[in-house]
Design a protein that fits this description.
3 domains; alpha+beta; nine-stranded mixed sheet; single chain
């Protein structure tokens, strides 16, 4: 019987080639989308999954003016204190921010991305060592652990690298004590070298003070430790160092821990708790995958019932000669599974062909795991599930036809069946409209980020590490560079200009409320910083050679000036890190990290004679190529041991929103595919309706109805369905996007005309889809439609 079912099913599919092609195309599109989303979601959940379950990230829960805030920034001395003060903590480490540094072995000079970490790092994190010992890899200030790639680049192999010396920034020699495997894409941390934490502390002495925040802290609990008990115990750990009176202070810091495995997906700290993050986008696209697959299945249902008239007599004859309803249901289910098998095969081919483009879009390295039994079982299960889901409704409807009515030619759709089909189309378009509106607003938010006035001009602005001899000869280099064509201004700062972090509460001014403990971000700059960045002065002046006392002077941003309470800040006393001075300027607030965060208080100090940090150059518009070529030649002459590299500020700024841009592009693609699949469903319903009303249309034409009136007759009912979908989808989209935008401190307005534009576009596309079938039905010769009578 199974063989017979398959033979009949195959003949039926070949006989209705156009119908089969539409069904396979619709299902294949939906399945391909679902497979892509599944692979992306699986990869997101796999990030950091190889790390130990007892590895935790420490974060701060700050009570500021009775409002809870959260931050992963912690004191640089916290890790050692936790290891000493809490028996439950087996290992602890602080980790510095990623930086690009220059290394040299013989004549080989390369720039590598890396960090500094505590001696416990390799005891805590699952980083397979190819050479060396986890216990001693970072136990010395002159020790360095490097990746396989870095070992091969400099020494030829990991084994040859051990024990050899590598020169860092042309100033310090490190001994290679360990070689670790290159970090896979499934890890959130990526670096090619690690030095001992003391190396970073020596260059950044502020990390030795409890009042300064910056680097993240990680701990590993002992196997017998209770995480919940540790979370309660660690909460007030900072009290012994901050000496804050919890009864009177309006600024209190509690600590909490979060499993490291969860920090990638749950990286947002809202209300002082780990809440949200990339997990929201993962869940959202999981729902999108389910909905797109449902849309494809709904298409199959509608298109199958749309051709019911063509198969009605076949069913009637079968029933008349004794066919049971169960056998007919089995027949239709097998047809559905066969179509789904073809669609799954087509979907896998589509995924294989488009995978390189999808990887480029998402920045991942995804593959179809055909080698995995679980994946193959999943594909088989998906085929069976989709086949049953898509074929169940047509099977039940078609097998239920009355043979007498069918053979007499009086078949008509039941009100209940028609209502369900309309409900399914409404569901399809509701989801499509939500996706389209969401796509428009996500794109506008991304455009808003790109075009947002940051308080400085990021275009035509480049920066380069101030390393080696370039730092020592900065003034000579600057004087020569300013004479080059296309160079407008040059300065240097101690941090990258795009994403400035690191804060301190060691700030004092007259009449400061001692119950407050507000953190100020500190930035040390050279002369002409405001001119180079094109930051506006609100009051006072910029640092200058003409004022020797500027070495102890301060410039505040507007937010910091408001915090001090000074009505006229210029000339007022101000102290940071114990250095007393006066405020000489106030600058207009500018963004120094992503728009997810509000502008916080910033203190700018004069650091003209500092020899580290980054060089910042303002280039004249239209002269980028000439200016960079000249700068590269000049940098090589002043700093021959270090290959020059310049970063564009606007490009680096966009990298802060790489995740949002990926989400926006994915939303664009899936919105287009969703509306395409929905239109196929609408076409199926139009075909079904036209078949049911063929004779009615013929009679109306005989009585004088015009093609236009018949087109309106068939189109109005579909327009009603679309309007119902719009009424449901619009508020749903508003609620969802409003919630997503709350993750930004600065966001684009949700204007009503955007919703109207999306709704109008959907109505136009839907009517254009229906019109194809409606006009075709209206143009049919009435003689053909009535000849059976």
């Amino acid at each position: 019987m199974i063989r017979n079912y398959l033979k009949v099913a195959w003949r039926s599919l070949l006989y209705n080639k156009i119908q089969t092609l539409i069904n396979v195309a619709g299902l294949a599109t939906g399945l391909a989308c679902s497979i892509f989303i599944y692979l992306w979601i699986a990869n997101e959940y796999h990030i950091d999954s190889a790390q130990p379950s007892n590895l935790y990230r420490v974060y701060e829960r700050r009570l500021v003016d009775h409002k809870l805030e959260g931050s992963y920034d912690t004191p640089g001395v916290l890790a050692d204190a936790l290891k000493r003060g809490m028996p439950e903590v087996q290992y602890a480490t602080t980790m510095a921010f990623g930086e690009t540094s220059t290394f040299q072995v013989g004549e080989q000079v390369l720039k590598e991305q890396g960090n500094s970490a505590g001696a416990d790092y390799f005891k805590m994190f699952n980083r397979p060592l190819l050479e060396g010992n986890a216990g001693s890899a970072l136990n010395s200030p002159v020790a360095i652990a490097i990746s396989r790639k870095m070992a091969v680049d400099f020494f030829g192999s990991p084994k040859k690298a051990i024990g050899n010396t590598i020169r860092y920034e042309n100033s310090t020699d490190f001994k290679v004590t360990a070689v670790f495997e290159d970090l896979p894409a499934s890890e959130s941390q990526h670096f090619d070298f690690l030095t001992n934490w003391e190396v970073f502390q020596a260059r950044n002495t502020w990390t030795r003070e409890w009042g300064n925040q910056g680097p993240p802290t990680f701990i590993m609990l002992r196997p017998d430790a209770n995480p919940e008990a540790v979370n309660e115990k660690i909460a007030r750990f900072m009290d012994q160092y901050s000496h804050v009176d919890r009864k009177t202070s309006t600024y209190i810091i509690d600590l909490a821990i979060q499993p490291f495995r969860e920090s990638y997906l749950h990286g947002n700290l809202q209300g002082g708790k780990a809440s949200g993050g990339r997990i929201e986008e993962v869940r959202l696209f999981g729902v999108v995958a389910v909905f797109i697959l449902l849309m494809a299945c709904i298409n199959f249902m509608n298109l199958s019932t749309a051709r019911s008239m063509k198969r009605a007599r076949e069913i009637g004859v079968r029933k008349a000669v004794g066919a049971l309803r169960t056998s007919l249901i089995t027949q239709f289910i097998i047809e559905s599974v066969l179509v789904t098998f073809l669609a799954v095969s087509a979907a896998l081919v589509i995924v294989l062909l488009l995978m390189p483009y999808f990887n480029q879009l998402t920045g991942k390295q995804l593959t179809l795991p055909f080698y995995s039994p679980a994946f193959l079982a999943g594909v088989a299960g998906l085929t069976l599930f989709t086949g049953l889901l898509a074929g169940s409704y047509p099977a039940l409807v078609l097998s239920g036809f009355n043979p007498i009515r069918v053979l007499k030619g009086s078949l008509s759709a039941t009100p209940g069946g028609a209502g369900l089909r309309k409900a399914l189309v409404i569901f399809q378009f509701t989801m499509s409209v939500v996706l389209i509106i969401a796509t428009i607003l996500v794109s506008r938010q991304i455009d808003f980020i790109r075009s947002q006035n940051l308080g400085y001009e990021k275009a035509n602005l480049v920066y380069s590490p101030l390393e080696g001899d370039l730092g020592k000869q900065y003034h000579a280099f600057r004087n020569e560079a300013l004479a080059l064509p296309g160079i407008e201004a040059i300065t240097h700062i101690n941090k990258q200009p795009v994403n400035i972090y690191g804060s301190s509460a060691a700030v004092y001014w007259i009449n400061k409320d001692t119950t407050q403990n507000i953190f100020f971000t500190n930035l040390s700059v050279g002369y002409d910083y405001l001119k180079t960045m094109k930051i506006k002065l609100v009051a006072g002046r910029e640092f200058s050679h003409d004022y020797p006392s500027d070495t102890s002077a301060y410039i505040l941003n507007e937010t910091a000036a408001r915090v001090t309470g000074y009505k006229d800040p210029i000339g007022q006393p101000f102290t940071m890190f114990g250095r007393r001075g006066k405020i000489v300027g106030v600058v207009k607030d500018f963004h120094f990290h992503s728009l997810h965060e509000e502008i916080s208080p910033m203190v700018i100090t004069a650091g003209e004679n500092e020899q580290s940090g980054v060089l910042v150059v303002r280039i004249s518009p239209g002269k980028t190529k000439v200016a960079l070529s000249s700068l590269n030649r000049l940098a090589r002459r002043f700093n021959p041991a270090f290959p020059p590299v310049f970063y564009f500020v606007d490009e680096e700024y966009q990298k802060l929103y790489a995740g949002e841009q990926v989400i926006g592009k994915l939303a664009d693609v899936f919105a287009v595919l969703a509306i395409f699949i929905s239109c196929l469903g609408l076409l199926g319903l139009a075909m079904f309706t036209a078949e049911q009303r063929t004779k009615e249309l013929g009679i109306r034409k005989v009585l004088g109805a015009s093609v236009g009136s018949l087109f309106s007759l068939l189109s109005v009912q579909f327009l009603r369905l679309i309007i119902i979908a719009l009424l449901i989808a619009t508020p749903l989209a508003w609620v969802g996007i409003h919630s997503w935008l709350q993750g930004y401190a600065y966001r684009t307005p949700m204007q009503w005309w955007l919703f109207l534009l999306a709704d109008g576009g959907v109505i136009f596309i839907a009517l254009a889809t229906v019109s194809v079938q409606a006009i075709k039905a209206a143009l049919v010769n009435p003689v053909k439609s009535l000849k059976a009578e």
